Amino acid sequence: MSTGKPLPHDAAPLHVTGAARYVDDIPAPAGTLSLAFGTSSVARGRLGAMDLSGVRAAPGVVAVLTAEDLPFANDVSPSIHDEPLLATDRVHFVGQPLFLVVAETHLAARKAARRGKVEIDEETPILTVDEALAANSRFEGGPVIWTKGDAETAIAAAPHRVEGSFEVGGQEHFYLEGQAALALPQDGGEMVVHSSTQHPTEIQHKVAEALGLPMHAVRVETRRMGGGFGGKESQGNALAVSCAVAARLTGRPCRMRYDRDDDMVITGKRHDLRIDYRAGFDDTGRLLGVDFRHLMRCGWSQDLSLPVADRAMLHADNAYLLDHIRIESHRLKTNTCSATAFRGFGGPQGMVGIERVVDHVAHALGLDPLAVRRVNYYADAAADEAAGGLSAPRLTAPPEDISETKEDLTSRGGPAERVSVAPARGQSTPYGMAVEDFVLNAMTDQLASGCDYAGRREAVAAWNAREPVLKRGIALTPVKFGISFTLTHLNQAGALVHVYQDGSVQVNHGGTEMGQGLYQKVAQVAAESFGVPMDVVKVTATDTGKVPNTSATAASSGSDLNGMAVKAACDTIRDRIAACLGELHQIAPAKVVFADGEVTAGGEVISFTRAAQIAYENRVSLSSTGYYKTPGLAWDRVKGQGRPFFYFAHGAACSEVVIDTLTGEYRILRTDILHDVGRSLNPALDIGQIEGGFVQGAGWLTTEELVWDDRGRLRTHAPSTYKIPACGDRPEIFNVALWDGENRAETIYRSKAVGEPPFMLGISVLMALSDAVAACGSAYPALDAPATPERVLAAVDRVRHG
């Protein structure tokens, strides 16, 4: 068995020794040129004359291009062709590319770009959601509204009501490797592009469009990225197109990379938003009606904002059965960099909204927030169904320390109570999708028991009663995250697998590797199918010339889609070999067994290498494509109804924090996580994704603050001013355990996606901070995010003094 083993990342030795090759590390051919943009220093205005004579005269400059010099399409948008590579008559944000410098070196290009003299008739920018609302500056004709039941009537009739509004900030991707591309001109005007991208086919499409070529004349290769997080789904288009256009113009290879400041100023970020809410509820905290208004700042171009905003709406229920809900979403156009995909793709924004509502309700009633969460949960699937394929409870508690995960965890406490209640008939999401695989009641039982939530909550209350300055808070929050692209046709993947005469296996697929371990998991799938050791399998760089029409490696679907496509290709080749050996041994192909690097047929045991040789000698094809499309999806975006997801991934996290009420500073004392990955393909990689996702999610809601000034200039554009979580920001005690169960859906070996869902476990930290602030007085904390020390201190003052 190759799947299910905690194997290390295939490139781990290369990563830790610095030997891993990224796009900017590729040895450049002689004569390679470097590129840099000249950008706007104004957020909004009419573009006037550009004096670029000083740029052209700068040392090392070979060419300077403006929009008029582009041979074909001046567009790098992933959606509606509203994002020119180089500005034409207007500028829309600080950092918008105006001209392109082609020079002998990277430094020469950057220096020359600063010499441009550009006249811009500056206008007052639209920077905030309130300004955009006042100007009716938006995408789509008006707000998108989805409803279930009658929220207005339910809220009005409820015995209790709360309402509020809170700000949720954006987030910089801060991938370690910045955006980069290298274009190599070929015979006949064709182009090869190396790009740090999550979406090679989109790069291929945009480059072909810019050069006036068919897509078959452009080949894009991506071996690895140094992080992506959604920031390399569409944001690499500009660099790849620039390199290709310059390479066509000069006949020389061209490369481009952003320095960190340029990367942060030019590229998109997570969508920030304001969430207005109203909710009606009963004495137990059960939500009777909820009304949300999402005011999402999308930036200057559409990019991927519509599906991001849609997914925020799709996750507005999180883990809660809501009979009456109304969600109104405004997609607002502002003079800031265009917001884009980021891990969770709107899901975190939608989820944090309902968690804020639940927290507010619990405070209003004086109840434990976990009790309010649980009274609103969907019902779990029946235990007998779980045995047939639904996730089933792991009867162990999480360890007290992450270093103890190899111990027999049953020694840490008794078994969690098994929940066997059948799901309520007709329980469905606000968008009409049946919830049939819910397991969070049982997961919450296990996590709360294993981390001693009840005992620690009592201890927190006792601490807060006696300590005047340092206050503690604790929160346990759930995650129910839908897996699939909401644009249904993207849920497909292809693969190309070769078996050579020496028994070695080459795997090509459409997914991209950005550190998440996709290549390793896919290699494990191939090794499992052929029954060979891992060192026999090689996964090559993602290449549009080998696997065409790929979807982005996004939506947490990399393993689901590409793993199934690779398995289909491997199974085809294996079946061919089995048929060949079956014929030679006069047995049924089904009786040919592949295991442990050997093949058994008719009592004869031979090596897999010999089996491949025999098949080749008998003229059997040892190469096959594989294809997979996710079944059962149907989504009507206009109506907001259907089945957009193949299944749900679940998780829960309990975090405890302490705040200093004199300074607003805080620490995460402990976090316990129980996460559902189905039947894990690789537990080591999955736990790594859970740990990293949690820290990144907590960072979004605590330390990572994006600040624009009143002229639309990003002031937090470097590590000195933008604070991603550091080692000291991780929980002092950090426990992660995997839920013991398999996916009900027929995914690759019954595994579940693990890329995005853990990100939202970080919401537990924000709720714990709210709990700690609430200990300072009687008012509700109303804590905005990110909950920086300044905001925590302001909330403490609010709670104490009203």
Can you characterise this structure?
- It comes from Primorskyibacter flagellatus.
- Heterotrimer composed of PaoA, PaoB and PaoC.
- One of its GO terms (cellular component) is periplasmic space.
- It is found in: Periplasm.
- Oxidizes aldehydes to the corresponding carboxylic acids with a preference for aromatic aldehydes. It might play a role in the detoxification of aldehydes to avoid cell damage.
- The protein has about 800 residues and is of the alpha+beta class.
- Helix content is about 30%, strand content about 25%.
- The protein is built from 20 helices and 29 strands.
- The protein has an eight-stranded mixed beta sheet with strand order 3-5-1-12-9-10-11-20, sandwiched between helices.
- Strand 27 and strand 28 form a beta hairpin.
- Helix 10 packs across helix 11, helix 10 runs parallel beside helix 19 and helix 16 packs across helix 17.
- The protein starts with 11 loop residues before the first helix and ends with a helix.
- About 5% of the residues have low confidence.
Ordered list of secondary-structure elements with their pairings:
Layout lengths: L11 H6 L15 E7 L5 E7 L1 H4 L4 E5 L24 E2 L5 E7 L2 H8 L3 E6 L6 H7 L8 E5 L2 H7 L2 E9 L11 E6 L5 E5 L4 H12 L6 E5 L14 H14 L3 E4 L2 H7 L6 E9 L5 E13 L5 H10 L10 E9 L13 H19 L3 H8 L6 H5 L52 H11 L2 H14 L3 E14 L8 E8 L5 E5 L8 H13 L6 E3 L2 E2 L14 H28 L7 E3 L2 E4 L2 E4 H10 L5 E7 L4 E3 L4 E3 L3 E14 L5 E10 L7 H19 L31 E6 L24 H12 L14 H13 L1
Parallel strand pairs: 1-12, 10-11, 14-15, 18-19, 28-29
Antiparallel strand pairs: 1-5, 2-4, 2-6, 3-5, 7-15, 8-13, 9-10, 9-12, 11-20, 13-14, 16-27, 17-18, 17-24, 21-22, 22-23, 25-26, 27-28
Helix pairs in contact: 6-7, 9-10, 10-11, 10-19, 15-16, 16-17
